[in-house]
Design brief:
The protein is of the alpha+beta class. It has helices at residues 29-35, 62-65, and strands spanning 5-7, 16-18, 39-42, 57-60, 84-87, 90-93, 99-100. It contains two helices and seven strands. It is globular and about 50 Å long. The N and C termini lie far apart (35 Å).
């Protein structure tokens, strides 16, 4: 199966988002990444430290969008592929702060 993917356009950011399996028929990948917290901006709007590029979309991961990026270490976060830490509430991403709750049979 071929799946879409998006990477963060911020320099030195390792963030990655893979299209989830079982995406509903007719769903647009652009809408899915926005729901996951990724920002799509025209690159013609210059970001601090980045040149303006006409007719191109810039992709920013949730961590960079919130000022907590760049993602420097890959891990198991389903939103940005950043490293996570296990806490009582679930696995929490160091970068985008996404919390994935523990499955009942995994957490005792």
């Amino acid at each position: 199966m071929i799946r879409n993917a998006v990477i963060c356009d911020r320099e030195s950011c390792l963030a990655l988002y893979l299209e989830p399996e079982g995406l509903p028929e007719g769903a647009r990948f652009e809408d899915v990444i926005v729901e996951a917290g990724w920002a799509l901006r025209p690159a013609a709007v210059a970001l601090p430290g980045y040149p303006a590029v006409p007719d191109v979309l810039a992709h920013l991961c949730p961590a960079c969008e919130a000022g907590r990026g760049p993602v420097l270490e890959r891990g198991k976060c389903p939103t940005c592929a950043g490293s996570t830490v296990v806490q009582d509430a679930g696995s929490t991403c160091h970068y985008c702060r996404r919390v994935v709750p523990h499955l009942a049979d995994e957490w005792c």
